[in-house]
Design goal:
5 helices
Length: about 450
């Protein structure tokens, strides 16, 4: 082979090799840091479905329509960021299975998800809300896994109890809640199959148009939660949720209601009340549930502090139920009543008040254990029942624009808690309810979101 032929063959081989790689120098680099045509740090808009991780740089952004973070991606949101919904294309942020949200605010600089409307014109249901979906167990089949409510067409649940969907800390969610159809809504914060590797702390949902927090299965544990002036239920547990929550508030607004009965807690094992495993069994300590306490214009469908129904189980300790018009601690279904009667479910060291029926059972639960027997059992397990909410001696729990949930000097809420036999997740304290002598809402929570300037 002569030298000229060798050079020709070498050149041909080089051309063949490079032709196997497609390079388009006009393609943007998918980094989410300013080089993409749809980079939200340039457009100030989040929209569509992201196949890459997004790191926001701070400031104000618009959520336009349903925004999806796909498997393997992370959205990172710095302290002080404001995310408003588009007015005409109501937004929602969906963290899919295998994706993460890292939204870490501070007490002095929280992250706020809110309405895109001007102060004074904001309404419940101005946008969707936040949906986080994980791979933790539920009591639903996995082939296929269930679709989450709200018309977002995404599945949740799996077999990884310690699944990690990221972190939310010092976050406010305001004026959320839209319905794809009756019974299928996006809530303030919807958690589907979210695992215990996820961190959710210091979160406030206010003026929601459906539930504040809804749990569809999963094992996620949470601390420092506020549900304020929401329409439907404050904390809704379903499909095998088995996580733990400590330090949480639910405060009803007498003038805000829903077409469905609004409860401080609504919980089911599943919609049919079966014995599907794992059972829905939240472990709750240091909650304060506050109803309207007979205030003028109280909505007719404000309901119970607790509505444990359809075969559900529970563990509730060291908490306060007060001011709900139709019932305090309420149970429905024979399976629910049986679990409480045989101590599979627990209700201990709680302060209980309601305008009617501090303890309530429906006909099927009542066939297992009467309301009078429930009261006797609750009081034998460290509980105290009150006929007057003022006797619990919280500072200003029924003030809508400037509530103060702290116990006054001499309040029975300052003592009486017990953590014997409880998981190490729970921090042992002396007080019952969400607060002792310090206020963990200071700085980051807001009770005037309608007039805040964003």
């Amino acid at each position: 082979m002569n030298k000229l032929t060798q050079l020709f063959l070498a050149g041909a081989l080089a051309l063949t090799a490079t032709s196997c790689v497609k390079v388009n120098f006009e393609d943007p680099i998918a980094t989410g840091t300013g080089t993409n045509a749809d980079d939200p740090n340039t457009t100030r808009i989040l929209k569509g479905s992201y196949e890459r991780s997004i790191t926001l740089t701070g400031g104000t952004y618009t959520i336009q329509g349903y925004v999806y973070m796909q498997q393997g991606t992370t959205i990172t949101i710095p302290a002080g960021t404001i995310l408003k919904s588009d007015i005409s294309q109501k937004g929602a942020l969906i963290i899919e299975r295998g994706a993460k949200i890292e939204a870490v605010g501070t007490a002095s600089n929280p992250i706020v998800f809110t309405s895109g409307k001007a102060a004074g014109s904001r309404l419940r249901g101005d946008w969707g809300g936040i949906i986080i979906l994980g791979n933790a167990p539920t009591n639903r089949p996995l082939s296929p896994a269930p679709l989450v409510e709200g018309g977002v067409d995404r599945r949740y649940g799996g077999t990884t109890a310690n699944d990690n969907s990221g972190t939310m800390r010092y976050v406010r969610i305001e004026f959320a809640g839209i319905a794809a159809e009756p019974g299928s809504e996006i809530n303030g914060l919807t958690l589907g199959g979210v695992g215990s590797g996820t961190t959710l702390e210091y979160i406030q949902v206010s003026y929601g148009n459906d539930d504040a927090y809804e749990f569809f299965g999963g094992t996620v544990n949470l601390k420092y939660l506020l549900s304020y002036s929401t329409s439907d239920d404050d904390y809704d547990f379903d499909f095998g949720y088995s996580g733990k929550i400590q330090y949480a508030v639910a405060q009803r607004n007498p003038e805000i209601g829903d077409s469905d009965a609004g409860n401080g807690v609504e919980a089911d094992n599943d919609g049919a009340g079966t014995s599907a495993r794992p059972f829905t069994r939240p472990e709750l300590s240091n909650f304060t549930w506050i109803g309207s306490n007979g205030a003028p214009n109280t909505q007719a469908l404000e309901n119970f502090a607790h509505r444990w129904r359809r075969g559900v189980r529970f563990d509730v300790r060291n908490s306060i139920l007060m001011g709900f018009p139709k019932g305090g601690f309420s149970m429905e279904s024979a399976l629910t009543g049986t679990a409480f009667s045989n101590d599979t479910s627990v209700f201990r060291n709680n302060l209980v008040h309601a305008l009617a029926d501090a303890y309530k059972v429906d006909a099927t639960a009542g066939a297992v254990i009467t309301a009078a027997a429930v009261k006797t059992k609750a009081e034998a397990n460290g509980g105290i029942t009150y006929t007057n909410a003022a006797d619990i001696m919280l500072t200003a729990p029924f003030n809508i624009t400037a509530p103060n949930y702290l116990p006054m000097t001499g309040s029975p809420a300052l003592t009486g808690a017990s953590f014997t036999g409880m998981d190490a997740f729970f921090t042992p304290v002396a007080f019952r309810g969400a607060f002792g002598t310090s206020n963990w809402t200071t700085g980051w929570a807001s009770f005037t979101p309608q007039t805040n300037t964003y």
